[in-house]
């Protein structure tokens, strides 16, 4: 067992860190404040390969591992959490299109999706179906060579700015087996976009309700087979959970680094904050838990790369643990900054706002526990160590 | 046209270095190491010349122990074609490096040797000049612009009085200044491709050069810490002090 990054991974991380320091971090506060979705920077990220890290090479992706992706996203998230999170969603959606799309769809969309010239959204959640995703009701009815889609999708990241929607729809009966995934061009006739939701964080990218009213797409836009949509959506989310957990760890690392620097500089009671043991212990715990979270994510990514039979459990554990730790670390770093942590002149309050949603989306942390416990209590469950 | 780019592994410019307690050197253990920024600019310029169809091959060379292959790989990921490592555990000074490079120049026969004007560790600013003298090539140092015009290199140099442009017959040595270009990021696909590019290893012995130290380091010390400033009450007082105390105006 070797916990060191390979030379390639070190170089990937280095490139990602340079990009984060130079192209993301200097603008992140303004993007947050002015609600700017930096599509040009996403395209620039695409030129470097960040838009299709684990999509298959045949479709123009880099075919790298989930572990590689986690290492890269962690560095990017330290520069801008919200932009990186959108990049991870785009990677997940692009991977689904590249993996299960028909040759028509792959040829039409993958050249631009993999390079970030066009972006994709992932549409699972509905107003009446959040945690209970298998109860979704958006329908796609076969009509000649087309599917006709009706229904609505809630909280869609990037919607209104992205070019392709990967939509989970009901083509069959109730339950997960009646669900299919379809690639829908975002400018199709009959798609209506709601207002950009006003949010606590993730302000550098819009979140919208998307309504489908008799939207027609060719049958060739079906991903995989009818009825496989839910399982694809969940496979996408295994990786998505690693990615989002990584965004928490990368952000928390930036918060921790800032707090450490601040403790050395800020003087109260005639000495630097770094000399108060209460704060030293706080810092020690933050760093310890962050290492645990990071390694747990890498373990889960490894299990996913190995196609381990219990990969979903490891991904759920990593997502639950790392997003909780990430939030706590950001909160504590803010606390170390005292009043300065609370004002926007420093990035701490943004870190805190941005990572909060990671405990909610891609499956809430309660649902992660549902997944873990259900599997643990299943007789067929393999060893979880 | 072949371009040879000598590069050096140095402590990263973001790192705060500390002097060893015995004052023999700075402490480099566990520090982040990078390609010297001026060398990176040289690599970028060479790759741009290749992309523009002016150069046909970009070869990077580094003198150092095995660890410097990391920086050679970085240069390959930025677009250089192949690498040469001159393997040594010693830390040669500029004259020895220039002698080694001279031998590599004899073997490779490049039209241009493009290198950083200095490295941020020793800040010597000597290697390029010494190499030019040893190899009998013209030199254009501190380049902020480089144009190739037939068998001439037009080098715009940053000098105290402003800019001066020199025309050099090729082959020539050109050293880079900060404003020559802004290096690109190594993209993920290029990092992956770099793995397949060759790095050959040679030694000072094979090149027939003995590394010798002509300089003895007596002591390495931190710069004196800056003493506290004084607050002045008015602009008049500031100007007065600049005139009489600092004597700068
Ligand atoms: C900013 C943002 C961006 C988003 N982006 C996307 C996107 O791009 N694509 C997409 O498809 N979705 C997206 N979502 C939706 C997100 O995935 C859902 O909000 C999430 O799955 C929770 O669903 P819900 O909001 O309907 O909450 P609910 O499912 O109503 O849950 C409410 C609460 O009840 C708890 N709960 C529910 N069921 C159980 C149970 N069985 N046991 C215990 N507790 C339970 C939940 O954990 C939660 O705390 C986004 C959401 C936000 C806020
Ligand atoms: C929105 C807002 C409104 C405010 N309104 C007012 C107001 O109306 N009037 C007013 O006077 N002030 C106001 N304040 C200031 C507020 O009271 C201070 O921010 C607070 O007292 C902390 O001081 P500080 O920010 O300088 O942090 P610091 O004192 O620098 O503390 C930084 C961190 O170090 C910790 N720390 C410091 N010393 C020790 C120690 N010895 N041992 C362990 N830990 C230590 C602190 O707990 C904190 O976590 C306001 C602040 C904010 C953000």
Topology:
The complex is a heterodimer of chains A (385) and B (249).
Chain A: H1 7-34, H2 39-48, H3 66-77, H4 81-100, H5 103-114, E1 120-123, E2 139-143, E3 146-157, E4 164-170, E5 179-185, E6 191-193, E7 207-218, E8 222-223, H6 229-265, E9 267-268, E10 271-272, H7 277-305, H8 311-336, H9 339-342, H10 348-356, H11 365-376
Helix pairs in contact in A: 1-3, 3-6, 3-7, 4-5, 4-6, 6-7, 6-8, 7-8, 8-10, 8-11
Chain B: E1 2-6, E2 9-11, E3 18-19, E4 26-27, E5 33-35, H1 37-51, E6 57-64, H2 69-77, E7 82-87, H3 94-108, E8 112-116, H4 127-135, E9 138-149, E10 152-159, E11 162-169, E12 172-176, H5 188-194, E13 199-202, H6 204-207, H7 235-244
Parallel strand pairs in B: 1-6, 1-8, 6-7, 7-13, 8-12, 9-12
Antiparallel strand pairs in B: 2-5, 3-4, 9-10, 10-11
The complex binds flavin-adenine dinucleotide (2 copies).
One flavin-adenine dinucleotide binds next to strand 1, strand 3 and helix 11 of chain A.
Low-pLDDT segments of chain A:
none
Secondary structure category of chain A:
alpha+beta
Give the CATH architecture of chain B: 3-Layer(aba) Sandwich
As for the number of domains of chain B, it is: 1
What name is given to the CATH topology of chain B? Rossmann fold
The count of domains of chain A is: 3
Rg measurement of chain A, Å:
21 Å
Adjacency order of strands in the biggest sheet of chain B: 11-10-9-12-8-1-6-7-13
Main pleated-sheet profile of chain A = 4 strands, mixed
> CATH homologous superfamily of chain B?
HUPs
As a percent range, the share of strand residues of chain A is 5-15%
CATH topology of the largest domain in chain A: Butyryl-CoA Dehydrogenase, subunit A, domain 3
Please tally the helical runs of chain A, counting DSSP H or I stretches of 4 or more residues. Answer: 11
What is the CATH architecture term of the largest domain in chain A? Up-down Bundle
Could you tell me the strand content of chain B as a percent range?
25-35%
The whole-number mean of residue pLDDT values of chain A reads: 97
Question: What overall form of chain B do the CA principal axes indicate?
Answer: globular
């Amino acid at each position: 067992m070797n916990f060191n990054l390979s030379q390639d991974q070190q170089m990937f991380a280095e490139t990602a860190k340079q990009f984060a320091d130079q192209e993301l971090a200097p603008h992140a506060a303004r993007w947050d404040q002015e609600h700017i979705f930096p599509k040009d920077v996403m395209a620039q990220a695409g030129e470097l390969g960040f838009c299709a890290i684990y999509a298959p090479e045949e479709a123009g992706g880099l075919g790298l591992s989930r572990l590689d992706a986690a290492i890269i996203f962690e560095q990017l998230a330290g520069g801008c959490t919200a932009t990186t999170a959108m990049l991870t969603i785009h990677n997940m959606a692009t991977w689904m299109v590249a993996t299960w799309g028909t040759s028509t769809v792959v040829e039409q969309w993958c050249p631009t999706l993999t390079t970030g010239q066009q972006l994709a959204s992932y549409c699972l959640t509905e107003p009446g179906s959040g945690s209970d995703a298998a109860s979704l009701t958006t329908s796609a009815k076969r009509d000649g060579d087309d599917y006709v889609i009706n229904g609505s999708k809630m909280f869609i990241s990037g919607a209104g700015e992205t070019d392709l929607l990967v939509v989970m729809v009901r083509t069959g009966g109730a339950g997960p087996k009646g669900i299919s995934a379809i690639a829908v061009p975002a400018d199709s006739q009959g798609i209506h976009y709601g207002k950009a939701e006003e949010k606590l964080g993730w302000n550098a990218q819009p979140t919208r309700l998307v309504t489908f009213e008799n939207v027609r797409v060719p049958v060739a836009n079906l991903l995989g087979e009818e009825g496989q949509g839910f399982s694809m959506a969940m496979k996408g989310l295994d990786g998505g959970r690693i990615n989002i957990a990584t965004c928490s760890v990368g952000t928390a690392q930036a918060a921790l680094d800032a707090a450490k620097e601040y403790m050395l500089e800020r003087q109260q009671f005639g000495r630097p904050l770094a000399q108060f043991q209460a704060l030293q212990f706080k810092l020690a715990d933050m760093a310890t838990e962050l290492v645990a979270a990071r390694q747990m994510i890498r373990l889960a990514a490894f299990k996913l790369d190995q196609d381990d039979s219990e990969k979903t459990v490891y991904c759920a554990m990593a997502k639950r643990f790392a997003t909780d730790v990430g939030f706590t670390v950001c909160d504590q770093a803010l606390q170390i900054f005292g009043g300065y942590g609370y004002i926007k002149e420093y990035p701490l309050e943004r870190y805190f706002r941005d990572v909060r949603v990671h405990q909610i989306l891609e499956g809430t942390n309660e649902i992660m526990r549902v997944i873990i416990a259900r599997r643990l209590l299943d007789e067929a469950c393999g060893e979880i160590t | 046209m072949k371009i040879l780019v000598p590069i050096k592994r140095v402590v990263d410019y973001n790192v705060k270095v500390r002097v060893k307690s015995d004052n023999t050197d700075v402490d480099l253990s566990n520090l982040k190491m990078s390609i010297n920024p001026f060398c990176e600019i040289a690599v970028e310029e060479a790759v741009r010349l290749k992309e523009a169809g002016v150069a046909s091959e970009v070869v990077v060379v580094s003198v150092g122990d095995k660890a410097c292959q990391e920086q050679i790989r970085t240069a390959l990921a930025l677009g250089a074609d192949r690498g040469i490592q001159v393997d040594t555990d010693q830390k040669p000074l500029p004259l020895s490096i220039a002698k080694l490079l001279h031998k590599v120049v004899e073997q490779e026969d490049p039209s241009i040797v493009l290198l950083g004007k200095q490295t941020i560790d020793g800040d010597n600013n000597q290697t390029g000049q010494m190499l030019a003298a040893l190899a009998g090539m013209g030199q254009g140092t501190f380049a902020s612009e480089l144009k190739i015009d037939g068998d001439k290199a037009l080098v715009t140099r940053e000098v105290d009085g402003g800019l001066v442009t020199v025309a050099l017959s090729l082959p020539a040595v050109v050293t880079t200044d900060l404003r020559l270009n802004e290096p690109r990021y190594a993209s993920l696909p290029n990092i992956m491709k770099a793995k397949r590019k060759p790095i050959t290893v040679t030694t000072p012995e094979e090149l027939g050069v003995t590394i010798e130290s002509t300089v003895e380091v007596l002591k390495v010390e931190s710069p004196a810490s800056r003493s506290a400033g004084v607050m002045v009450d008015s602009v008049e007082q500031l100007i007065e002090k600049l005139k009489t105390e600092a004597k700068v105006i």
